[in-house]
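To whoever is on call:

I kicked off a structure prediction for a single chain this morning and the downstream step that reads the tokens threw a length-mismatch warning. I double-checked the sequence; it's 281 residues and nothing unusual in it as far as I can see. Pasting both halves so you can look.
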Amino acid sequence: MSWLTRSRQRLTGFIARRETPDNLWTKCKSCGAMLYTKEFEANLSVCPECGHHERVGAVARFDMLFDEGAYQRLKAPAPPEDPLKFKDQKRYPDRLKAARAATGETDALLLAKGAIKGQQAVVGVQDFAFMGGSMGIAVGAAFVAGARAAIEARCPFVMFTAAGGARMQEGILSLMQMPASTVAIAELKDARLPYVVVLTDPTTGGVTASYAMLGDVHIAEPGALIAFAGARVIESTIRQKLPEGFQRAEYLLEHGMVDMVVKRHDLAGTLGNLIRHLMKA
């Protein structure tokens, strides 16, 4: 054994190996750039290289939206769980338990009340990290609760959508949330209060077929996937190749499906101005 090898072994006993955190760097899913995580999060999870808007959780959305990050969380009803006793590869309660452990939340839709650029609003945010933001009984109940909280406070209801559609483990009960949310939106309209939808990536399925497309104003984040059925399903049905960028926010803006595409940095200001004008009207 050489003196160099012996020296390395001795040094190893005295100097602890420095550990590098796994989350120190974030790789952009669009351009592949390696980004320092703290700087990436400080930039509202938007890639400074290509402008890709990464998905964010509900709490992070509240923090970046409300003035000074100050808001009041609103409690949503707790409907019965696993009404159909559903089981696929896993039991439904086990899937709920895993999603709750991963996100720290009870279900996919969170509610909060606060000021956006000085304008009071009730805001609902779907978290795609919770079972793909899927719409189940709890999401439907939370949506109705958010709309009625806005009516009670005489302020707009702003809904951030992010979902893969209806929650299959709840079957027809999940689909019943589509008309339930539609009734809640009608209550807002009867109260002459604005309902504003912010479409984030991805918004698909039954959510798109219900409350995501019933707003007074529709805003989308850049590059967001907004669709009912997947592109491959549509292509196999109509037997045609879809246009480039089909179902993305910019394509929908060009074809009149959304009113504006707004970058995340400008979203709070846009919503504040919009609410101010709508409430004066």
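Update from on-call: the warning came from a stale cache, not from the record. Cleared it. Sanity check on the structure: The longest strand covers residues 195-203.
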